[in-house]
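User: Batch of two.

Assistant: Item 1 of 2:
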Amino acid sequence: MADDDDIQVVADEADAPKGGGIDLSLLIGFAVAFGGVIGGLYMEGSSVGKYYGPSAGVIVLGGTLGVTIASVGLAAVKSIPSTFMHALKYQTMDRPKSINTLVGFAEKARREGLLVLEDDLRTTEDEFMRRGVQLVVDGTDPELVKEILRTEVDSLHEERHADASVWDTMGGFAPTLGICGTVIGLVLVLSNISDPSSLAASIAVAFIATLYGLGSANLIFLPVGNKLKGCATDEVSGKEMLIEGILAIQSGDNPRIVEEKLVAFLTTKDRARYRAAKELKDGGDLDMDLAA
């Protein structure tokens, strides 16, 4: 017989965060992207060393950092390391587990009243769920509970997207700064055109800045920005599900109705898996009852 812990949706292994809380998809993506570029260089008979250009790096990265500070402010730029770690370590909510917890709350509240949930809140891991249910237990008006929780979610949504916009800003400016670096290099080359033998090599070096700008934008900045936006969407959706469940408990809905409302927040594939696990559990219970 399957127990409640078996009623959970297991994401595809390729998408599941592993390795001690680190989302390996981001690191794997970087490795594949950089590996493809570097592999292509060697297939063409080139090498990474030929693309080393410290001056181009200073122009592109220094210029991008400067205009980003001017655009979004110093405080937002200081948060770049922490937002990168958020993208790297983001863990999606275990929605089936949260559904089981809220349905359990609904069953208990329907039998014994809302006040009995206060003991369960001490062991509830999800802080947002705990605070929301505590508002309900305290007898807060339903509209006020909804307003408080939705305001928090809206604030979180804006904060997360502001973090992502910093990376998007860098991804937008970096290619332009790369072109600026290339123009600077070409000006220097043409100002010293008296040595035709070194002209081709000097022009090649000048174009490294464009490579740095395009590469940093499309291989680092924009992917991280998109990752952060995806994390924000998932996080907000999960909290919206919790709000729906908390309000359903407060209104005294039947636990089965509470479950149906929450299962609707799962994807089609995950919803099918959840229902299959649920049917397996219920079938196991029925078999035991018949045996008794």
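Item 2 of 2:
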Amino acid sequence: MRVPYVKVLQSEAEEEIKRLRRNNQILREFKIRRAGDFVLIPVRDSETVGEFEENEKKTMGRVGSFERISDFFIIKGREGWEKIMEEIEIKQSPRAIFLDEGVAGPYRIRKLRRIYGTGKPAGIYRENGLRFLVDLERAYFSPRLAALRKRIVDNCVRDSREGLIVDMYAGIGPIVIPLLKAKRNVVAIDINPEAIKLLVENLKINKVSGQILIADSNSIYQCIKGVEQLIMNNPTQPIETTQKIIDSLNPGAFAHLTHISKREEKIHFRGVETLEVREVHGYSPSSSLFYYRLRKK
């Protein structure tokens, strides 16, 4: 299979492999191979792509869904999680495995119970060439939304006319930081002070700076009605609240939002042109997470 890789001298390979493993960059499901005096290492991000043999011992079976962040794993607290834990323990050499028992509270913190290993659900996570400090005891984050975040960023960058972009529920910054890297004018808002602290650290890690505000976005949305792009990645928010915020936007402004609904249910927002509706992933047997890209009329 063709995957990204880096090429290093054989004499330097051992140290480089250790470094890449510490940063969770090696694609463990593929075999490292030699090419003359060089060692080719399959990694998550690289401009160079080549053919690599799959490592059968490390391949996970179809045992159910899980998430990997840094050197720890998260399993949903559903029937059959014991089998998933066993598979991860044997084939992935995790530092820790946590059982996800739901999201609770105004800050949407995941309730996690460690079922294997040691330490906290925290570490450095890499996404689309950027690094993020994640601590799930302090702020919500899910690697499952990486493709959605990239789509929102790409849409904002394409549609932006150098106006203001506001991320109303910015979290640790996985949307804000790539927008800042793209030289866009961004304001990040979050009600959770711990998420903001992590966001500040992530700005430093990725060598960007931006405007940050600790606030309840739903209480101050009328103050930001002049924005060009508004990001509302808060899928459990009531439709009525989202509609009020959309109503406050100026004509021509874009809104990017997520919402959980029944798969056959189509949400229609007043006063907007619906540019895109996309199913992100399943949420329950009958519902899914959807992404909406709207433009105010």
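The helical segments are 10-22, 81-92, 146-159, 176-181, 193-205, 217-220, 239-247.
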